[in-house]
Amino acid sequence: MGTFKSAISGKEFPETDKIMGQNVGKSIFEMIKKEYPEFKVSDAIAAEEFGAYRDNHMSTMLLKDIRQLTKSEQTVMDSLNNGTTITDKVDGDEGKDDTFGQRIADKVAEFGGSWTFILSFVGFLVIWILTNVLFLVNKSFDPYPFILLNLILSCIAALQAPVIMMSQNRQEEKDRDRAKNDYMINLKSELEIRLLHEKIDHLIIQQEEALIQMQKQQIERLEKIIEQTRKE
Fold first, then answer.
1. In this structure, is residue 113 part of a structural domain?
2. 170 belongs to a structural domain
3. 146 found inside a domain
4. Which structural domain range is residue 118 located in?
5. Threshold 0.85, pTM exceeds
6. What is the sign, positive or negative, of the torsion defined by CA atoms of 101, 102, 105, 110?
7. Region 50-75: what's the mean pLDDT?
């Protein structure tokens, strides 16, 4: 197996890793040209070097006006470089940073908005009223119009309202996190599709170059055979 020397690093690599400058793409070629002004379309680099410039090109595509990657985009780039999936990170972070108060608020809001709470509370009201009206009669601890019961209901409503609002804010945060995760997954899918197109184009170009080399060898053999036949 033959080797070639990279035009940018001067190192030798296997011939199978050879990528010509005319095949790296315009944007990546310009990036290489900035670092190595003498680099030409007829020069060759290794697939490993091309991969490094390709990753750098993907990062550049995601740069904002402040010239920094956002946390979500950096997560996507790390996932691409490490070969991991975004969904693993999403599942692992679900509820990981919730505080004790946030978990309590979620549980209270979940129970307060269920039929279990409604039926239980209706049962409590019925028992309270029947106890004070029918069973205790004149000795009731909360006679009609049930002032103590109204006080209890007011206290529950006063405490339940901010807890429900807290839970709603938590739900909005979760929705924003899900939207951010969907954005990261879609962004990674788009980048992987672009990389896949580049790899397919690279493979096609390699096959075409291999076919051209085979044709040249066949033509050379035919010319030798023709020369031998003429000499005979």
1. yes
2. yes
3. yes
4. 96-232
5. no
6. negative
7. 63
